[in-house]
Specification:
By secondary structure, the protein is of the alpha/beta class. 44% of the residues lie in helices and 13% in strands. The longest helix is centred in the middle third of the chain and has 32 residues. The protein is elongated, with a radius of gyration of 24 Å. The protein starts with a strand and ends in a 9-residue tail after the last strand.
Length: 438
């Protein structure tokens, strides 16, 4: 199969590379000439474990190529995937579809044969209908179908998610389009991956519903963590106790500083706007969005409280600033709320993140950046763990104590246990568990 992937951001680059790994011929298109030049040289603009090697091997085999020109990418393509950004529109939270429709117009003006035009980008309900109408208005003679095929990729585990997915969702009514999608995903049929064929609108809404539900689980356990702290209970045991119930499941029940990233914040807001447009309130999602925003601010206050109620003049080491481990993504990361709040309260921040610092320097003013975790802690009054990178899970606690002015740790990811920290002589504050004093 021949595939054109328009957009080489996170979704487009991962999806295009994995399709090439399936054995398809894939051309990735992006208007940013600099980005395409980097990709042709094997330089990956994002950090995603395993992606650099996969791009290199498929480019070397000739199955994967990159271009700024749409016409050669569309030549003989069986499917054209739209994988451009749909950020939150300023002012109202709607998904900004400017890039999606611009691409649709270019496809309409360039395509000269039957192909399935597939929205891989996360788009509101009805976007596929609008794309079809737009193309038919510009090219009444063109033979094509429009399908929806949302992605369900976790940053940091995207390649495995694509190659071994829980399910594939395809929204297409025409059997011709469905057959094209079956052929593209045929390698996964051999593994008996569930494939949900439905209509476009259902497919589009499924993506938003999935992310909103996961955001709800995260927010729920975060609120239970607050209750556990007040009541003297342990949120990890609560999460295990409810997660073993098959109706609930154990995933996304890890208390922390709130969700962030490229999907949950913008998709929950976009779902709210879609519900508003259809005059069908989704009050649970609305509460989740508000609670998560408050969560991040609450975490800054939690840190201040751990320092005795004031951080003015204090030097705080921060481990991790990306919204999650195994990514350099800073979009809506809790650190973007927490660190400025601590600075405003008078603290000096010295931070380290294995992959996120390059992007973080553009977003966080006045932060000192260290070369490793231990350098960040040198002479600090305490340390805060914001992102649960593996290298932070087994710190040399005696060395940590020798570097800090006081043995104080605020662990917002619960990667250590209160007992071990007490034995190591730390004042230890975590999320949803009783604080420990040395």
């Amino acid at each position: 199969m021949k595939v054109a992937m328009i957009g080489t951001g996170y979704v487009g680059l991962v999806s295009g590379t994995c399709f090439a790994e399936f054995g398809h011929s894939v051309v990735c298109v992006d208007k940013e000439a600099g980005k395409i030049d980097h990709l042709r040289r094997g330089e990956i603009p994002i950090f995603e474990p395993g992606l650099e090697a996969l791009v290199a091997s498929n480019a070397e085999s000739g199955r994967l190529s990159f271009t700024t020109e749409l016409a050669p990418a569309l030549k003989d393509a069986d499917a054209v995937f739209i994988a451009v950004g749909t950020p939150s529109r300023r002012g109202d939270g709607h998904a900004d579809l400017t890039y999606v429709f611009a691409v649709a117009e270019e496809i309409a003006d360039t395509l000269d044969h039957y192909a399935v035009i597939v929205t891989k980008s996360t788009v509101p309900v009805g976007t596929g209908d609008r794309i079809e109408a737009l193309i038919r208005t510009r090219r009444k003679d063109l033979d094509f179908d429009v399908a929806s095929n949302p992605e369900f990729l976790r940053e940091g585990a995207a390649i495995d998610d694509f190659m071994r997915p829980d399910r594939i969702v395809v929204g297409a009514s025409a059997e011709r389009a469905r057959e094209v999608m079956r052929r593209i995903y045929r390698p996964l049929f051999l593994n008996e991956t569930p494939v949900v064929f439905t209509d476009r609108r259902t497919s589009e809404l499924t993506k938003y519903a999935a992310n909103a539900f996961l955001a709800t689980k995260i927010t729920f356990i975060n609120e239970m963590a607050d209750l556990c702290e007040a009541a003297g209970a342990n949120v990890q045991d609560v999460a295990r106790g409810i997660g073993l119930d098959g109706r609930i499941g154990k995933k996304f029940l890890h208390a922390g500083p709130g969700y962030g990233g490229s999907c949950f914040p913008k998709d929950t807001k976009a779902l709210l706007q879609t519900a508003h447009d259809f005059e069908t309130p989704v009050s649970i999602v609305e509460a989740v969005v508000g609670a998560n925003d408050r969560r991040k601010k609450r975490m800054a206050k939690k840190i201040v409280a751990a320092f005795g109620g004031a951080v003015a003049g204090r030097r705080i080491a921060v481990l991790g600033v990306a919204f999650k481990p195994n990514t350099d993504d800073m979009r809506d990361a809790p650190s973007l709320d927490i660190l400025p709040a601590l600075q405003q309260a008078g603290a000096t921040i010295c931070a380290f993140d294995p992959e996120g610092m390059k992007e973080a320097t553009k977003l966080l003013d006045g932060v000192e950046w260290a070369n490793d975790a231990y350098q960040a802690m040198q002479g600090a009054d305490g340390v805060v763990i914001l992102t649960e990178w593996n290298e932070f899970r087994a710190l040399d606690l005696e060395r940590v104590k020798s570097l800090l002015k006081a043995p104080l740790m605020i662990d917002l990811r619960n990667i250590y246990t209160p007992d071990e920290m007490a034995q190591a002589g730390f004042a230890y504050h975590s999320v949803g568990r009783p604080a420990q004093q040395p």
